[in-house]
Amino acid sequence: MTDGEVRVQPWRAGTWTTAPAAATEDGPDLVVTAVEGSDAWRHTAYGFVHDDAHALLAPMASPGAVEVTFDVDWDGRFDQAGLVLRADEQTWLKAGVEMTDGAAHVGAVVTLGRSDWSLAPVPEWAGRRVTVRASRAGDAVTVRARVDEEPFRLVRVAAFPPEAAVRAGPYCCAPTRSGLVVRFRQWAVGPADAALH
């Protein structure tokens, strides 16, 4: 989205799927404290279902796009933040930055009944500002991400039901610890990407 196409969403435009421990506006930012043990996952490999990540969601146009910008200044195991597209408890996508194997990773989980997980290490993103973008059109969601003002990089092209009514917005969760605090800088919406490449 170019600057002229971005429409910044006020934090009050969304409703929480699961309330965080705390959420306060600090100037233009939203500072969120996650609940220990919060997560989003269905079945695959781990054998459990978690559906208590803290996602602040509003209706998303299709075709359309959503962007979330946040600071990566946390380092607990499986700490994560980014964006969620959600139709229901079995149909959703989360994408963002997660701490795993001792480093920051950019990745996505797509859940269509069961979850999958794709990720790539980005240790150089730690301590910096990240923007994650999801563009939905037809039967696909295209996820891109960038650090600071660097160019967006492609993270994932995922199948997603074209008929599903979706809500989207920022999320965070802390599967293994208390005390995760995420500073979200912006939540924006706009038109879908014109092309995949």
Write the CATH fold name: Jelly Rolls
Low-pLDDT parts are: none
- CATH class group: Mainly Beta
Q: What's the number of extended β-strand segments?
A: 18
Which structural class should the secondary elements be placed in?
A: mainly beta
Q: In percent, how helical is the residue content?
A: under 10%
Q: Biggest sheet, open or closed, and with what strands and sense?
A: 8 strands, antiparallel
Number of helices: 0
N-to-C span: 14 Å
Q: How are helices and strands ordered from N to C?
A: EEEEEEEEEEEEEEEEEE
Gyration radius (Cα, Å) is 15 Å
Mind telling me which CATH architecture this is? Sandwich
The fraction of residues in strands falls at over 45%
Protein name: Regulation of enolase protein 1, concanavalin A-like superfamily
InterPro entries: ConA-like_dom_sf, DUF1349
Organism: Geodermatophilus aquaeductus
Pfam families: DUF1349
Descriptive account of the structure:
Strands 1, 3, 4, 8, 14, 15, 16 and 18 form an eight-stranded antiparallel β-sheet that branches. Strands 2, 7, 9, 10, 11, 12, 13 and 17 form an eight-stranded antiparallel β-sheet that branches. The protein has one domain (32-190): Jelly Rolls (Sandwich). 0% of the residues lie in helices and 56% in strands. It has no helices and 18 strands. The protein is mostly beta strands and 197 residues long.
